[in-house]
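Entry 14: structure prediction run for Homoserine O-acetyltransferase. Input pasted below.
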Amino acid sequence: MPINVPKQLPARAILEKENIFLMEKNRATTQDIRPLKILILNLMPDKERTETQLLRLLSNSPLQVSVDFIHTETYQSKNVRKSHLEKFYQTFSEIKDQRYDGMIITGAPVEHFDFEEVDYWDELVEIMEWTKEHVTSTLNICWGAQAALYYHYGITKTMRKEKISGIYSHKLVRPTNKLVRGINDEFKIPHSRHTDSDYVAVEKHDQLTILDSSDQVGPLLIVSNDEKNVMITGHIEYDADTLLREYQRDLAKGLDIHAPSNYFPDNDQKKQPVNHWRSEAYLIFSNWLNYFVYQETPFTW
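Run finished. Output tokens:
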């Protein structure tokens, strides 16, 4: 997928080294197709790394994509340069009069709080309500998925006794769903979280469909029947070393935490972790872009 991103965005140099197809704005405007407009609400602390991960996955289809980033107005991240936000990000109030073909709402390190206790919850509620009329389909990741399940469908979350961290196997239970076309019957995905949504309530909800199962971590993919919302409970966007960096961060904080499960080759922490989920991640993103966004969105809003 040719993806149109700002020339000076730090993620661009990384993606160009990986031979990702990026496009200059002047070339994009001369093509006789309308690019898909994708809005990303980036709630992750390491915004630049998350930008790279998401843009990489948005890049792998024939569709042209134009991306806008927004950050919260009601909470200022302490882990990103102010100059970076000012240069590459907008706020919701600046884009709320526009319409977008797709939107991505990322995870966030706020699982220990009730939803209403999160500093920017009211702002997120306003954004999620806005998506109903202004976005064709929204991809919600990890805590973003839990927030979407709670706000749109009344599904609560609970704390786990210990953090899920590692690579876990999933089995498809709805292999004919458009979102999982081309994906193996069994696949492995990273998870990193302290909470679970009420999956029994999800299964009983008449507006939601679960696409896979895992005895250890629950489903990865939950889709609303109108395809307006896709919930991804894990982190398919993670790099091979992301769980390692999180583990090292938590150890440095003195937390009592186990090493990521099924992660280090031969359970040897001296060995470099391997990415076992790249193909599934690319397929899920490209299927979402094609079937849930491109095939459904109007040419003109």
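Notes: The longest strand covers residues 157-172. Will compare against the previous run tomorrow.
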